[in-house]
């Protein structure tokens, strides 16, 4: 196997020799991302849609291509050399991605993304609720009147699976409200999370508001009553240094394509005893020990949850992506993106007719802002920005209830990443300032 070339940005200096306070050279980092050299509608691309899908560095692109060119084979079962090489690369990728979030390899289940991971958890608990699984699975079972608590700011992927689970089991779904500034109401959370609470599901960082939620407090409230905690880490994994076991969360999910990696791969982290108690969700090949025509027995985690052919190349690409992020340093990345967020806010609040969603003073956040343009639909605003080479997200961002909370059907969302420069933000702000005048407002 030939290894993928090292990233120029990540190789600038040894990680140990850099202070976490050293500023990033975002312009140099951007050169590691081929797509950022593109022009869109006659303008240099300003990519501010990383919360939906981040761009990939050459290191991640090369790692997946290298696997396909030199070791492409099915993993775990083959006896030939390519199969052995593919298996080694696949399991090395598991170890790298697990380590990136502070976990052991056996605590990481490969999924197709966070949505798959959350559905896996919800359906597994549903299976436990109808008596499937090992004796330990009974501890996960829901009964009529049990409560699932989530928040009013969730992405649909961390809401609808719980709606479905409640409908199947007779459990009651409850929601922690948010204040006007987008912060969660912890007093309400303390009242909602009680002796009937069995699951508390929450996002680490809102994909609309960009606010880092007080997860330590939520986890403590859940632990007080013995409830299972499930965290959506999609918007935190690429931007914050995570140690999931240290946080004390039971289960957490993230998606590769939001953290510089490929589509079609993500991770489900679980505490060992929780994964061991969970019945399988998908069944078939690769997740069994013995099978007869009438009965099957299943492998331990994580393979129990990995039926069928796995996303081998994407997993290897994701491992290269997290090594790239580690090489630069998550603390440095967060500091850079926080600076961009502050620059973005300072400019947006000066533009007439712009209303920020979740403008919580002093709240920790990532480099993301969603806003409403008075008198202009978000889709029209997005097209105006796109004509000037600025890529943003428009719509309800799979968080329709949260938009209803703010009295809008859609918003414009700009989300920065490690490869964005202050010049990108200034170009974006200049373009936003022209939206309402263009529409005669």
Automatic annotation (TrEMBL):
InterPro entries: Aminotrans_V_dom, Aminotrans_V_PyrdxlP_BS, Cys_dSase_SufS, PyrdxlP-dep_Trfase, PyrdxlP-dep_Trfase_major, PyrdxlP-dep_Trfase_small. The keyword rRNA-binding does not apply. Its EC number is 2.8.1.7. The keyword Magnesium does not apply. PROSITE patterns: AA_TRANSFER_CLASS_5. Residues 46-428 form the Aminotransferase class V domain. It comes from the Bacteria. GO terms for biological process: cysteine metabolic process. Keywords: Pyridoxal phosphate, Transferase. Its cofactor is pyridoxal 5'-phosphate. One of its GO terms (molecular function) is pyridoxal phosphate binding. It catalyses: (sulfur carrier)-H + L-cysteine = (sulfur carrier)-SH + L-alanine. PANTHER family: CYSTEINE DESULFURASE, CYSTEINE DESULFURASE 1, CHLOROPLASTIC. Belongs to the class-V pyridoxal-phosphate-dependent aminotransferase family. Csd subfamily. Catalyzes the removal of elemental sulfur and selenium atoms from L-cysteine, L-cystine, L-selenocysteine, and L-selenocystine to produce L-alanine. This is Cysteine desulfurase. It comes from Microbacterium dextranolyticum. The lineage of its organism: Bacteria, Bacillati, Actinomycetota, Actinomycetes, Micrococcales. The gene is sufS.
């Amino acid at each position: 196997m030939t290894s993928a070339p090292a990233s120029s940005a990540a190789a600038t200096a040894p990680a140990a020799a850099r202070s976490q306070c050293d500023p990033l050279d975002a312009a140099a980092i951007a050169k590691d991302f081929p797509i950022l050299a593109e022009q869109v509608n006659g303008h240099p691309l300003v990519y501010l849609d990383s919360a939906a899908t981040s761009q990939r560095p050459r290191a991640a692109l090369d790692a997946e291509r290298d696997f396909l060119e030199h070791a492409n084979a099915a993993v775990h079962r083959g006896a030939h050399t390519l199969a052995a090489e593919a298996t080694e690369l696949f399991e090395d990728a598991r170890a790298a991605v697990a380590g990136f979030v502070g976990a052991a390899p056996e605590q990481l289940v490969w999924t197709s993304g966070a949505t798959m991971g959350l559905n896996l958890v919800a359906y597994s608990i549903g299976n436990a609720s109808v008596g499937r699984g090992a004796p330990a699975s009974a501890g996960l079972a829901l009964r009529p009147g049990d409560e699932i608590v989530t928040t009013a700011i969730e992405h649909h992927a961390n809401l609808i699976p719980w709606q479905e689970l409640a409908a199947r089991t007779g459990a009651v779904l409850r929601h922690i409200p948010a204040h006007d500034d987008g912060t969660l109401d912890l007093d309400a959370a303390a009242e909602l999370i009680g002796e009937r609470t069995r699951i508390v599901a929450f996002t680490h960082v809102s994909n609309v508001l960009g606010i880092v939620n007080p997860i330590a407090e939520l986890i403590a409230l859940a632990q007080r009553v013995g409830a299972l905690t499930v965290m959506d880490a999609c918007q935190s994994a690429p931007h914050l240094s995570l140690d999931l076991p240290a946080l004390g969360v039971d289960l957490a999910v993230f998606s590769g394509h939001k953290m510089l990696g490929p589509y079609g791969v993500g991770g489900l982290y679980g505490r060992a005893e929780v994964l061991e108690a969970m019945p399988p969700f998908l069944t078939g090949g690769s997740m069994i020990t013995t099978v007869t025509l009438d009965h099957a027995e299943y492998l331990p985690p994580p393979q129990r949850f990995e039926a069928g052919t796995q996303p081998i190349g994407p997993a290897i690409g994701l491992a290269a992506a997290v090594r790239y992020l580690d090489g630069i340093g998550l603390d440095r990345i967060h500091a850079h993106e926080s600076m961009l967020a502050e620059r973005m806010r300072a400019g947006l609040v000066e533009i007439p007719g712009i209303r920020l969603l979740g403008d919580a003073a002093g709240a920790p956040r990532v480099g993301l802002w969603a806003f409403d343009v008075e008198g202009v639909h978000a889709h029209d605003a997005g097209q105006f920005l796109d004509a000037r080479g600025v890529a943003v997200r428009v719509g309800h961002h799979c968080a329709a209830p949260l938009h209803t909370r703010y009295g809008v059907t859609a918003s414009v969302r700009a989300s920065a990443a490690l490869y964005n420069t202050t010049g990108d933000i200034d170009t974006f702000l200049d373009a936003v300032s022209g939206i309402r005048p263009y529409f005669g407002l």
